[in-house]
Design brief:
The complex is a heterodimer of chains A (381) and B (106). With 381 residues, chain A is an alpha/beta fold. Helices cover 24% and strands 28% of the residues of chain A. Chain A folds into 3 domains: 178 residues, FAD/NAD(P)-binding domain (3-Layer(bba) Sandwich); 102 residues, FAD/NAD(P)-binding domain, CATH 3.50.50; 76 residues, 2-Layer Sandwich (Enolase-like, domain 1). In chain A, helix 1 packs parallel to helix 7. In chain B, 40% of the residues are buried. Chain B is built from 3 helices and 5 strands. Chain B has one domain: Ubiquitin-like (UB roll) (Roll), CATH 3.10.20.30. A 5-stranded mixed β-sheet of chain B has the order 2-1-5-3-4. The model of chain B has no long low-confidence stretch (mean pLDDT 92). The N and C termini of chain B lie far apart (31 Å). The chains are: A alpha/beta (381), B alpha+beta (106). Chains A and B meet through helix 1, helix 2, helix 7, strand 17 and helix 8 of A and helix 3 of B.
Chain lengths: 381, 106
């Protein structure tokens, strides 16, 4: 039986970062990545933006070139899935039939798209294979209906509008990005989409929408079945402690599939930053320098000429302060719970985003009054 | 292929060949050179690929973009020679380029 000192179940951003960080830290053991997708692990953010617009081709998508894996002695098994974990024996079973022993197992199983049962012919967007289908469809379709006004739905809406399609976005919630951003920022984004000619429908109004192409973008389900079957606790994600370990000291979880503790409860985040910083935290632990995970979350979303950058988590905010003009393409929304700054959402204001990331990393960030005073330079707070 | 030398903050040098059409950031990431994180993958969204360009190469690497300028104004240790390496495209004219990494990217 083959053995890997560190084995990643899943081959996304977190798995590649863990391997890269271990080698940068002079980790001398064997590293293996089991990826259920074919080919090289690829960047997902461009799949809903630049790739669909034809601004970049597939050659630009891999997270690292093939030469990287050989040069860094990282074994990559593509089109292969971990099907079971034997925790007592510290080995995993693969879809290929092989069993592989592990010293440490990093669960990086990611998430899968939520679907609408019975909606035949609808497309989703998660993998390169999905993006290929959509890129081709965009070339012939004249209209698209997008179900879900989350990040993926709105990014795809911006791409389709730019490519000249008639766009209708249908969202069951009363507004866009209900879980993702504050109400003022959602309103600002929706106004821009409408200015590009797209229709956005919210709530339960009944209407029949005809379209050549239907995209379902209604969020994801974390892939926890593998961990659950191995007896590990799962609750909207694989439950890990502050150092991203499960109850089994030989198993960590990272990225989209991991539910980790923060000062304001458990969270599970779907972002590049979360995956990469989780992986770095686990690498440091495996290199003998354990520390609790404590990074300020940040996100970005490109929609047409709009660059939205978010620092922090706005969940639970009860007050917003706007810098800039809410009717312009450049504003920031500061989200507070009482006097405590929780998150800053910046649209085409990269300076405020960068300042926010620094502010949120400190215990006493910024007061609502300071946020509201445009004369206060955020760098000097 | 243009040869680029990356110097870590601790002085460790890495000289690698980087294909034309790639970026100075990709050259570091693809070769697993420590000191450039590049979390956003080159979208000029994260400012974690900050480098100091060697004085002799400042003209050849060109000017900062507006977005890059604002991102850099908030990065740690920004100097006149600072660039985000994802915004420097590799061309034959950059054969021999030398860049230095800051103490940290976060």
């Amino acid at each position: 039986m083959r053995h890997a000192d560190v084995l990643s179940a899943g081959g996304g951003q977190a798995a590649v970062q863990l391997a890269a960080s271990l080698r940068q830290g002079r980790f001398a053991g064997s590293i293996m990545i089991i990826n259920d997708e074919p080919g090289l692990p690829c960047q997902r953010p461009p799949l809903s933006k630049a790739y669909l617009l034809g601004q970049i081709d597939e050659a630009a998508l891999p997270l690292r070139p093939e030469s990287f894996f050989a040069a860094q002695s990282i074994e990559l098994l593509a089109s292969t899935r971990v099907t079971a974990i034997d925790r007592a024996a510290q080995r995993v079973a693969l879809s290929s039939g092989e069993s592989i022993g592990y010293g440490h197992l990093a669960l990086a199983t990611g998430a899968r798209n939520r679907e609408i049962p019975g909606m035949a012919g609808a497309l989703g967007l998660r993998t390169l294979a999905d993006a290929r289908v959509l890129r081709d469809a965009l070339g012939t379709a004249r209209s698209v209906a997008i179900i879900g006004a989350g990040f993926i739905g709105l990014e795809f809406a911006a791409v389709a509008a730019a490519r000249g399609l008639a766009v209708t976005v249908i969202e069951a919630a009363p507004r866009a990005l209900l879980r993702g951003v504050s109400a003022p920022m959602a309103e600002a984004l929706v106004a821009r989409h409408r200015a590009w000619g797209s229709r956005l429908l919210f709530g339960s109004a009944a209407e029949t929408v005809m379209a050549d192409l239907v995209l379902v973008a209604i969020g994801v389900i974390p892939n926890t079945e593998l961990a659950e079957a191995a007896g590990l606790a799962c609750a909207n994600g694989i439950v890990v402690d502050a150092t991203l370990l499960t109850a089994d000291p030989a198993i960590s979880a990272m990225g989209d599939c991991a539910s980790f503790p923060t000062g304001s409860g458990r969270v599970r985040l779907e972002s590049v930053q979360n995956a990469a910083d989780h992986a770095r935290c686990i690498a440091e632990r495996l290199l003998g320098r354990p520390a609790p995970y404590a990074k300020v979350p940040w996100f970005w979303s490109d929609q047409g000429a709009l660059k939205l950058q978010i620092a922090g988590l706005a969940t639970g905010h009860d007050q917003t302060v706007i810098r800039g003009d809410a009717d312009s393409d450049a504003l920031s929304v500061f989200c507070f719970a009482g006097d405590r700054l929780l998150a800053v959402e910046s649209l085409n204001r990269p300076a405020e985003h960068m300042a926010a990331r620094a502010l949120l990393a400190r215990p006493h960030g910024l007061t609502p009054a300071q946020a509201a005073d445009p004369g206060i330079d955020l760098r000097s707070v | 292929m243009p040869s680029i030398t990356y110097i870590e903050h601790n002085g460790t040098k890495h000289t690698v060949d980087v294909p034309v059409g790639s970026s100075v950031m990709r050259g570091a990431v693809d070769n697993n050179i420590p000191g450039i994180d590049a979390d956003c993958g080159g979208e000029c969204a994260c400012a974690t690929c900050h480098v100091h360009v060697d004085a002799a190469w400042l003209a050849a690497t060109g000017a900062r973009t507006a977005q890059e300028e604002t991102m850099l104004s908030f990065a740690n240790g920004t100097e006149d020679d600072s660039r985000l390496s994802c915004q420097i495209d590799v061309t034959p004219a950059l054969d021999g380029l030398i860049v230095r990494m800051p103490a940290g990217q976060h």
